[in-house]
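Its record is quoted verbatim for completeness.
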Amino acid sequence: MDDGDRQLETHIGEPSPFVDMVVGPGEADNSRFGGLLERLRWKAGLSRADAAAKLGFSSEYLRLIEVGKRTPALGQMRNLLSVYGAVGAVEEISPDGYRQDLIVFDPLDGDDGDPVVVEFTSRIREARRSALGGLPDDDEDSRQTAHERPTASRAAELGMVVSLLARADDATLRKVHKLLEERVD
């Protein structure tokens, strides 16, 4: 293994230090990101109503995204880039080994513009990042309080449970909810 391989392994799963915008609940860059998405929509020649219909959003939700009051989930970005015909990539590893949430080119910068690197934040993503980032693991899972940061193994497990719940039917969700209420109380 050469030094390049070692460097790549060192950074895999880490967010890039080269971030232009951080978006998510309560983030300051939400308005700038919304403006970027609006420019992508304009370049695609789509009205807000047409874009919303193709994305499966309401026009009002898309308006809220474009003014920075809401942010789409990272998982929606591939579809958004596709609908807008935008040049970009979702969750790619950069040449120096950092994980990039979203890389997109601003249509106002033309073909010569630099890509915009966007980092997404959310509780679920933070739990997954903690697991990937290799936080020290300990055996205090059972003593953890709601306000402490989860250990890497607990964060990974929580991420898996959330992803499974997202695909569960309503009856399963009700059963899990009841079970959790009985165990947590």
Remarks:
- The first strand starts at residue 21 and ends at 23.
